[in-house]
Amino acid sequence: MTDTxxxxxxxxxxEALSRCPVFCVDRFNWGGAYRPVTTGRLGFLPDSGFVxxxxxxxxxxxxxxxxxxxxxxxxxxxxxxxxxxxxxxxPCYLNFEMNANGAMLACYxxxxxxxxxxxxxxxQGLLCRADVLDDHWSIRLTLPLTLVQSLYPxxxxxxxxRFTCNFYKIKESEGLTHFASFAPIPVPEPDFHLPxxxxxxxxxxx
Length: 206
Known about the structure:
Distance between the termini: 27 Å
Mean pLDDT: 96
Shape: globular
CATH topology: Immunoglobulin-like
CATH class: Mainly Beta
Low-confidence stretches: none
Order of helices and strands: EEEEEEEEEEHEEE
Number of domains: 1
Radius of gyration: 16 Å
CATH architecture: Sandwich
Structural class: mainly beta
Helix content: under 10%
């Protein structure tokens, strides 16, 4: 785990997300000349779940894939990974990968391989919306507590609760290939599936 931290503010409406702290996805751990500016905010709605917004200053992003479950990381994509039991030796973590069409690859598991897509009964309330403008695009992800607590029954979301996360900007295919993260990942080859390098996060009261 890195020393990078993010304070997740408790909010009472989705509109209040605009008052949450901004994080920057600006660690280009494996170099590269193409470095689009990417930022985001994460908030917590009690009795509902988490709300994430991310924005990338990128015009006309690559957006080939249209359907949930597609390999959107080959397009221009923004991603969020979460672990709500980081104290476990080999913890389960969640990955949400989204392109500018709003197509989302969402899975869980304990390693990069053998990821499991969320079954339909857990996807209720898991929503992704994308907006594309002239010089930037954004996504909004809602992560319901029902999904989180089904996989992490010991997690109690309240003031002071802790978990880990990391946020990414990626295009894995040829042409403007890039890999950026919020928390640094000190390994020689691109790999976002390393929960040991996720940032610390803590829920704070309103």
